[in-house]
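User: Can you model how pyridoxal-5'-phosphate sits in this protein?
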Amino acid sequence: MGDTVKYVLDEERIPKAWYNIAADLPEPPPPPLHPGTLKPLGPDDLAPIFPMSIIAQEVSTERWIEIPDPVREIYRQWRPSPLFRARRLERALDTPARIYYKYEGAGPAGSHKINTSVPQAFYNREAGVRKLSTETGAGQWGSSLALAGAMFGLEVQVFMVKVSYHQKPYRRALMETYGATCIASPSDRTQSGRAILASHPDSTGSLGIAISEAVEVAATSDDTKYALGSVLNHVLLHQTVIGEESIAQMEMAGDQPDVIIGCTGGGSNFAGLVFPWLRGRMAGGAGPRVIAVEPVSCPTLTKGRYAYDFGDTAHLTPLVKMHTLGSTFVPPGFHAGGLRYHGMAPMLSHVHQLGLLEARAYHQNECFEAGVRFARSEGIVPAPESTHAIKAAIDEALRCKAEGRAETILFNLSGHGHFDMQAYSDYFAGKLVDQPLDEGALDEALAGLPVVG
Ligand SMILES: *Cc1c(COP(=O)(O)O)cnc(C)c1O
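Assistant: Here's the modeled complex, given as structure tokens:
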């Protein structure tokens, strides 16, 4: 077998439907609550910020949700995405394990996020919306929504976490190239932003703060809706094209994963790959182990509490039950900006509670080391977020070597790092600091969790 082993599906194999895990769960996840009444949320409560078609997906328990033709047409530009076998990495590690990765960086914005920005823009345009407001961490979501907005003729306004706004100027340039407006958050454009700036003038921002600003804009303007790039059910749903394709591709390879790995920020690329593979296990069968990987400095699944919390800092969003570090927790400004969210997708948190997944956390330097090793053998420079999945895949391959087991490992390479080269330069210069979790700050943020009866 040659060095480059790539499993490519024909265009007609782009999934015709997204897979909704809610249909197969042994018990439903706890409902989102209205922040004022603490009663389960009704669809109308979300109407000021989302169109009804998206709200319907958010609460759906249908197993399959059809992908609209105009969305599949756009997906054709980069889907089905390739599945590679990492032969050169296997050799470099001298492991008996077989390592496969699904590559989501081939889309025009460079990450998996465009799998959901396109349908979100489509449904909003169908509903007559003119503008979308959103937040972005490292900038991948902002650029994906900016592009989808350009495709469907929607204006896009992006609140970008301030630390990333300065760390990643080319991401901002990309958003502007696609026609979006990009604002450093916290900003003076919203009440939530001004309140943070008044108490913390030097705030480097957080996803929680940027979400408050974007939701506030949508809730207070008639022609604007809000779009979120992770965490919510409909976002995880849209990402299941990744896992559905990977099932067909592993069949092509004549192999089956023993371990499946993804990095987790809000949980969307991980859920997108993993949920379709969990169908068999929920039906009572055997199935692969699945491992979620997060940063030590923002360890939602490994150190967070499973509790009702707000999705944002200013407490404008509904309360959702999830693994959380507390909505006031502001992680340090490490480079994997897409993994700096204080919470985890409620659906993924629920799946974790059901015992269907494992979670682990790594420091950023060991992740960059793994990312560089991967780039030197496979050629693709991974996004800082994706290096967390690579680190875990390498560790699993080395475990296989130590145990003399020829297991099959599948991981998601959620995006490329072409806009993150400053992070690589900093890593080579020895400037990246492995910050331990600030336990005091975590305790303080957890103490502030809302009290729900
Ligand atoms: C946003 C992002 C992540 C983290 O978000 P999830 O919703 O957890 O997938 C991971 N990798 C890349 C490349 C991203 O852009």
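A couple of observations from the model: The chain has a mean pLDDT of 95. The CA atoms of residues 7 and 135 lie 34 Å apart.
User: Helpful, thanks.
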